[in-house]
Specification:
Layout lengths: L5 E5 L3 H12 L8 E6 L3 E3 L4 H6 L4 H4 E3 H8 L2 E4 L2 E5 L4 E4 L2 E5 L2 E4 L4 E2 L6 E2 L3 H10 L8 E4 L3 H13 L5 E4 L7 H9 L2 E4 L9 E3 L3 E2 L2 H5 L10 E3 L11 E3 L4 E3 L8 H6 L1 H13 L14 E4 L5 E5 L2 E6 H19 L21 H10 L10 E2 L6 E9 L5 H17 L4 E11 L4 H21 L3 E9 L13 E9 L15 E4 L5 H9 L5 H11 L4 H7 L6 E6 L4 H10 L5 E5 L10 H6 L7 H4 L10 E3 L5 H6 L9 E5 L1 H9 L4 E8 L3
Helix pairs in contact: 1-4, 1-10, 13-14, 15-16
């Protein structure tokens, strides 16, 4: 059981990344409290390598710190959400489109935004500016102007010269800002210096200094003229003993330092030490940052300048090599797996925690509940009213997102019957933690469930709560378990699994591979971008597909949703009562999430996959593959899915209409067995 109290880490900047790394490598140092990191993206970009990314020297993965994975290693919950505000008095952090998070201690490392001093694209936040540069045409005759000739602007414009050898580039400086040597270097790089805001018709990139996000000012925190949070030497916000701040969004009032990744990195250790002490009620330590820091600024010619206070050296190839070595060493520290104290076998979550098909079928047969399985049941004595139940252990450490995913997964059973969801009841089992933490977990979970129901005009009409009697995991949010009873109605006869007909086309609504992607994430093998892509699709409701199908409903003969037993297992259920049919699958047409097939080829799989392989027997009978399957494809066919696709059997006419509009892909067809 965790100690009472909640620590929130707002923002995934360098300081917080290093705090998480410390707790991943030394779990005994992590406070025994509920800890959550909130960031608008699942990765944080290491600023020291961003110019190299702009120049085309690095791929994004090389400088992306996987915050979700780092949190998993550190025993910290991760919430991907946009922070919109802070109430220091009520101690709550406001998030976009979801309930606020309450805290006892809060650490702010939310970065900075570019100061809006001219028209153009701000370099910060980085995601927007990098997307802008990707969209630019290197052959555009209009010059691109970088506004701001500080260290950041200088390095960015030189990186752009390497990226675009021929495009006209301009650097706007303050009159007399740059020394003669720097001006000559820019001249050699064919970069035009501009001393004023003269007429400029091309695009501009703003490197005009930074300021704290606007919502910090609205929170009433003490700020300096640049909107940075004022702290004491303990990194504690002035006048707010339960708030801490570091990185570009903060400044030590007594020892101010410029907003720079260097200072954010150096603040990591003292911040971790004082957060640990604050949570334990111990005395905080004073930090005296050094007065100056070495800056290494890369050029476009495999060279770099070194700056220390007023001293400068270079450009030099040796300094360039030194910069690369420092940057790569920093990133390597996050890419190395943490030492694992627990060697217990991996136990996958989500629908991969489903009971295997064989013991389930055997148990149901013994109690005379076997027969043709359907996704939902018609309520006795009713006409067109359907009910289904589903749930699983928490798939992610974000309780709101977990509530949403569980609700989407449960509703899928009704969608597979062609029904509209009208209501639901929830049973939520909470871990043994403090009453306040249980309250927060329940609020976030129910809000996530309601976000799905509300999109469909459905209501959460009741439910039940329980407290687990098992030891709480770390983070405790992974101990939340949800079961949903979902109710709905079908305007006509519900679709059945057993309605497959000769000549039917088989359509699928979204890719496969969630089982192996989340299994890989548990071992650090899944890339952040790959898991993000899967979650982006998984969190989208498929109820709109039912609305799309309504006009051609007569052409739909059978349907199911692909969940724990994988594509082949659920296709087998469709064929179970259709002995006269053969299904031909086009393996090349079966969609997979990015990275899923690669992980399967490497031998990774969900814990439910071994029992699901029993469904391969269908490949020796009524299911045929057009081409010899790869090992990865065979495993993809039995990969358990959470929030998986719908599998539809329909006439060719209906298939043509559906594949022309929407996400549907044809992956096979059914034919009658002859002879």
């Amino acid at each position: 059981m965790t100690a009472a109290g909640v620590l929130l880490l707002a923002g995934g900047g360098h300081s917080h990344a290093l705090v998480l790394k410390r707790w991943a490598m030394r779990p005994e140092q992590r406070p025994r409290h509920s800890i959550t990191l909130i960031n608008r993206t699942s990765t944080g970009l290491y600023s020291g390598m961003v110019p190299g990314l702009i120049a085309g020297l690095y791929q994004r993965d090389e400088l992306a710190i996987d915050l979700r994975q780092l949190c998993d290693r550190a025993g910290v919950a991760f919430v991907e959400a946009e922070i919109t505000g802070l109430d220091p008095q009520d101690k709550c952090l406001r998030l976009q489109d979801r309930p606020a998070l309450h805290f006892d201690w809060l650490s702010l490392d939310v970065g900075a935004i570019s100061r809006p001093s001219a028209t153009g694209i701000p370099i910060k936040p980085l995601e927007a500016s990098l997307a802008f540069l990707e969209s630019e045409d290197p052959s555009d005759p209009l010059p691109l102007r970088v506004i701001g000739a500080g260290a950041a602007g200088l390095e960015v414009v030189l990186a752009l010269r390497r990226r675009w050898p021929q495009r006209e580039l301009q650097l706007q400086q303050r009159p007399g800002q740059l020394d003669g040597a720097t001006r000559k270097s820019l001249q050699r790089a064919r970069i035009t210096l501009i001393d004023d805001e003269s007429d400029h018709r091309g695009p501009s990139l703003l490197c005009t200094g930074s300021q704290g996000p606007a919502w910090l000012a609205r929170a009433g925190l003490p700020l300096d003229p640049d909107g940075r949070i004022r702290t004491d030497r303990r990194l504690r916000v002035e006048g707010h003993p339960s708030l801490f701040a570091s990185g570009d969004c903060a400044v030590i009032s007594a020892e101010p330092r410029p907003a720079s990744g260097v200072w954010a990195v150096r603040a990591g250790r003292p911040l971790a030490t004082n957060l640990e002490a604050a949570c334990k009620g111990q005395k905080l330590r004073t930090w005296h940052p050094q007065r100056d820091a070495l800056q290494l600024i890369g050029s476009h010619e495999d060279a770099a300048w070194a700056r220390w206070s007023g001293w400068r050296l270079g450009p030099s190839r040796l300094l360039w090599q030194l910069k690369q070595r420092i940057d790569r060493t920093f990133m390597a520290g996050f890419q190395q797996p943490a030492a694992m104290a627990d060697t217990a076998p991996m136990a996958c979550r989500g629908c991969a925690a489903k009971l295997p098909a064989q013991p389930l079928a055997a148990a149901l047969a013994r109690v005379e509940l076997g027969g043709q399985p359907e996704d939902a049941a018609c309520l006795p004595g009713s006409k067109g009213l359907l009910q289904s139940m589903d749930g699983f252990p928490a798939l992610v450490s974000d309780p709101w997102l977990n509530g949403r995913l569980t609700a989407l997964h449960a509703c899928s059973d009704l969608w597979a019957c062609g029904a509209h969801v009208s209501s639901a009841m929830a049973t939520v089992t909470l871990p043994m933690v403090s009453a306040n933490e249980q309250q927060e977990l329940l609020v976030q979970t129910l809000a996530g469930i309601r976000s799905v129901l509300g999109e469909q005009g459905a209501e959460l009409i009741g439910g039940h709560t329980m407290e687990s009697r098992s030891a709480s995991p770390v983070p405790a949010s992974l101990g939340v378990q949800i079961t949903l009873t979902v109710n709905g109605d079908s305007p006509q006869s519900p679709w059945l699994k057993s309605g497959l007909q000769p000549g039917d086309a088989l359509l699928i609504s979204r890719p496969l591979g969630t089982g192996v992607l989340f299994a890989g994430a548990m071992s650090g093998a899944t890339k952040a971008a790959e898991l993000d892509a899967a979650l982006q699709t998984m969190t989208c409701s498929q109820h709109t597909l039912i609305e799309q199908i309504e006009p051609i409903r007569e052409g739909i003969h059978a349907c199911t949703d692909i969940t724990g037993f994988g594509l082949l297992g659920h296709l087998g259920e469709m064929l179970q009562n259709s002995p006269g049919l053969t299904v031909e699958l086009d393996g090349s047409a079966i969609p997979a999430y990015p990275g899923a097939l690669e992980l399967l080829e490497r031998g990774l799989s969900s814990t439910l996959a071994p029992s699901n392989r029993a469904a391969w027997r269908w490949l020796e009978g009524p299911v045929q593959l057009k081409q010899p399957p790869s090992a990865g494809l065979l495993e993809l066919l039995v990969d358990p899915q959470t929030c998986g696709p719908l599998l539809l059997a329909c006439s060719n006419e209906a298939a043509t209409k559906l594949t022309q509009n929407g996400p549907w892909l044809q992956i096979g067809s059914a034919t009658a067995v002859h002879g």
